[in-house]
Automatic annotation (TrEMBL):
Name this polypeptide is given: Protein-disulfide isomerase
Pfam families reported in the protein's UniProt record: Thioredoxin_2
Record flagged with keyword Transcription regulation: no
Domain of life: Bacteria
Secretion signal span: 1-22
GO molecular function, one term: isomerase activity
Keyword Isomerase applies: yes
Residue span, Thioredoxin-like fold domain: 34-143
Entry keyword set: Isomerase, Signal
Ranges in a coiled coil: none
Length: 159
């Protein structure tokens, strides 16, 4: 019942007062970006234009550490391939930035490894268990925010 309510509110795009259960998220499976004192948990799709905008914005903040979990949407047919590619690279952060910038959008294929593909599926399960239904979804200071709402993110993180 609670999961259905959370999913309904997420779909409606509302910011919830109830936190995601951060203790249940396996941050060892996330792609870590940055080293700032403020933590942002990010659920993203590499082909989502709103996710890409949010990524550019968060890249410009030196005060943030991001824990990125991928949630490739079915309506983006190459998203799963791109996630597998990112999670297969030794330098996942660099690969993330290449993909999110659009630099690899025209690539015929993107190589992945069994380990990267397995991690992609584990991240998808983590996102699903967390109640994520759309991208981008963020957890900031115990709040859930869906969509790229720069003003709301700045409100939660400070400018």
């Amino acid at each position: 019942m609670i999961r259905a309510l959370v999913a309904l509110l997420l779909v409606a795009g509302l910011c919830l007062a109830a936190p995601l259960q951060a203790a249940e998220l396996d941050f060892a499976k996330a792609l870590k970006i940055g080293s700032g004192p403020k933590v942002v948990v990010e659920f993203t799709d590499p082909d989502c234009p709103f996710c890409r905008s949010a990524s550019r914005y968060l890249d410009g903040r030196g005060d943030v550490t991001r824990y990125v979990f991928f949630y490739p949407l079915a309506r983006h047919p190459r998203a799963r391939e791109k996630v597998g590619y990112i999670l297969s690279r030794k330098d996942g952060e660099r690969a993330y930035h290449q993909v999110m910038s659009g630099a690899l959008d025209g690539a015929a294929t993107l190589a992945s490894t069994p380990r990267g593909n397995r991690l992609r599926e584990e991240q998808l399960m983590i996102a699903t268990r967390a109640g994520v239904t759309s991208t981008p979804t963020f957890m900031i200071n115990g709040r859930i925010l869906t969509g790229f709402d720069r003003a709301r993110i700045e409100e939660l993180l400070g400018k």
